[in-house]
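Data availability (excerpt). The following record was deposited with the supplementary files.
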Amino acid sequence: MGEREQAGHLPGEIVETYRAPLPGGGERDPREIVASYRQPDPREVVETYSRPVPSGARKAPAASRTRRRGRGVFRGRRAGLYKFLICAAVLVGLTAAGKAVEYLTDRDERRPGGMVYETRAEITIPSWPVDQGAGLTVSRTQGEPLTAQEVYRRLNPAVVTVQCLSGEGVSVGTGVIFSEDGYILTNHHVVRGGSECYVTLDSGYSMDVCFVAGDEDSDLAVLKVPPGELMTVGALPFAAFGDSEQLVVGDTVYAIGAPRRLRGTLTNGIISAIDRDIEVEGRTMTLLQTNAALNSGNSGGPLISERGQVVGINVAKYMSDWNRDSVEGLGFAIPSAYLERIVNDLLKWGEVRPEPRLGVWVQAEEPGLFVKSVDPGTAAEAAGVRAGDYIVAAQGEEMHTNQDLFRVRRTLYVGDRLTLTLLREGETLEVTLELDEAVD
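Predicted structure:
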């Protein structure tokens, strides 16, 4: 962090300053304050409420809620003295240019020394049971285009700031409410290693939440507002989810989140790429790419279409590993098309169950999906599917693109049966696949 100086300790006075060396070994003016942290005044107001809280809700005093767990003040320790903006982890170096993909989570460390967050740290946040009848629906029906102001008014009340306390400090991200009884979707890395967690509504009202389930590989987690809090705030506004597979490059999108802890921030842009394969923590994720501004604190927040539907969950961006501000407009989101299967598995079983393997390689070619090859020993071979066939329907749904078949597969589990309608040399026939093998 460079040279450190000690100053006085009166309330409100600078107690630590840091002077970081310039890139290339240059030196700064010794009088220049590069970063400073102030000892909190016990009388300081950390959180204020600009709007009335919901009817009957208790307006939690700032000192008892936010100061207790937020903004670098952790149960009396001066954690702010060792604050590092690390976006959870630097994930993968790319080239000599020094670029990296990073998560979009603010983390405050209690001690110096760099990044110490374990990839699979245990989550000990109070739990909420699975299989309670909750579900997430991704609609394929689109509404009329909205203005940016209309998108914000519709979606911002359903967006929350998520703060999770762990042994290392606090992780700050974003979440989106997807049911009126308080189920919240966010990134798994936002809650990873957490021991307690709370969310802040757009009104400024904060409340504790429980952990339902999460999946490290898909980087998704579900939280739940407990009944006691729901009795206080009532039914919660929730977001509608739309189908990301209907997006095309150039479509307008918006992001709402808490970048650098600035709750309720709206940014806009376009879809820059579809199905972008990005390596994240040693695994490849297929993501939407956007130039909508995403920064630390946006993790877990919604990427929103101009129809006012959530079409992705923001997760990462490219950054330079020596100059964090030198790479712009390269953000990524988990497509909503994948969310329905994963989130509903988490809600039902507490884990993601594997999709079944079909055993066919296809490409879109009229009048359906052309079968390029069939893997030996798979359900497709056993059912009689051959290379050169055309798949024109699956489970009665017409097939035009590879995504059509993937969408049907995401509704199935190992042990299910899949009916395909084939066109072979001008003849239509039906076969049934016994899906007894999982995708590797």
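Summary of structural features: The first strand starts at residue 3 and ends at 6.
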